[in-house]
Prior knowledge:
Helix content is 66%, strand content 0%. By secondary structure, the protein is mostly helical. The chain is globular, with a radius of gyration of 25 Å. α3 packs across α6 and α8 packs antiparallel against α12.
Amino acid sequence: MLPPSQSRSVLEPALDRNSLKITPPASWASLPNKGQLAIITSIRVVDFFQIASLQACMYKHLESFNTSSTPNSISAQVGFLQGAFTATQTLSAIWWGRVADTAGRKPVLLIGLIGTSISYIGVAFSRSYEALLIWRIFAGSINGTIGAARATLAESVSQEYHPRAFLLLPLAFNLANTFGPILGVSLADPVERYPALFGQNSVFGGLDGVAWMLRYPYAAPNFLGALLLSLDAVVVWLCLRETAPNRRSRQDYGLKRGFSLRSRFGCLLGRRRGYGTLRNIDNSYRRDPDDRESHVMASNGPVTEMATKKTMHLRRLWGRNFLLALLTTAVLDLHLGGLSSLWPLFLSSPHRNAKDPTTLPFYFTGGLGFQLSQVGLALAILGILGLSMQLVLYPRVIAKHGLLYPFRLSLWLYPIAYVLTPYLSLLPFDSAGLIWLGILVVQAGQVVGRTFALPATILLLNYSCPHPSLLGSVHGIGSSVSGTSRTLGSIMAGAFDNVGLENKMSGLAWWIFALISIFGCLLSFIVRDNLDE
Length: 533
């Protein structure tokens, strides 16, 4: 058992023991290493972008293989493809976390970006469900960017900036999920969508149309995803600094080449003051005095005997704080996975039949009966609310109240939203204004909860790391637990919803997830920030 002075996570400075209160508050303008943070954010944006774009077109892509396929069979295939990617990514995340701790964060990020890019080229030229399944399994197994990106982000700024810096990850998610489906759908089946440009007797198609677009109508969105992933891999190789403690001081030929290009061609990505001439690059690229990430670990906490050790065995990771942080993450992602399935289903399910028996408060059926455009609008509102709250509300509240208090309070919004949501179907069908007001209320609860809860769980995992050499493993295990919980939550949502419909209780699944979220609320009062041990 380590003495108290050595059991504190080496990733933490001396902060407020009860609420992780930050003084003075960090602002966007005060964030150091903005170039490094921008690259990390771009990794998550392109990763989320290609997933969102692919999912938007997947149903039609599968339908194009066999036009006689039934909607039920295509929906099952879509589910298997999504599950195959998530399952393989979840199973490989822990291993990629260990690789990130030993070989470095940067190699894992490069392998993930390049490998995923190759998989999307394979998807583009796939002409069968089996081929798509193989490429999605390959993409999930090769993509270990989640844990590596989180670890790099944690090591790129000192802890006083973590609440603001980690907000970049959900921001990347919202940006990608807003624009990914739009661009994906706009590029899908270009011959049919833009016949004057690519069809018969068109500008680029000649007499018969563009041959490869006719043979592979859903290749263009995947080509775009592969291109963005490849370009981001180049940026990572040339510009991203390695932050793993055991690899940080080693020579980085990609970074050296990036400095060389910036010096020769002038501000390729924005030249910064203080860089030397070409003959000085060999010395300057390792430790640029204008960059703070070279000293991140030293500034993140007191140098203890534990912190001076080069590595720590993985078995030392499984302490009380880490297990509680994992359990908190698992419970949150479990009901969020259910929410991601239940909310679109509830929006599009037929409105209740007036002849159906209704016995309040539990026995009633029906959804909101929205058209596809209305479902899209409701989901877009969800994204817009999330972006605005993450940019404006979250930093101010965290700066004033710290991390744990808003986290614990925001979790209670989930059970309230889950309990109320099914009752929206009881509102008068012809009262559109009242229905949309109800949607805004429950979505506000979902968004506020997600805005404060998701960054907090990542930070709690980060703070539970007992040694820098285990940070990649911490976030690899965390992403694995998160993916598993979300997949399980989605499966549970479908099963509970079917049981509820059979028993004339359309709110059954919502109320079960409300109970699960209440357990998460209570659990948040047990989890600690690793400063008290």
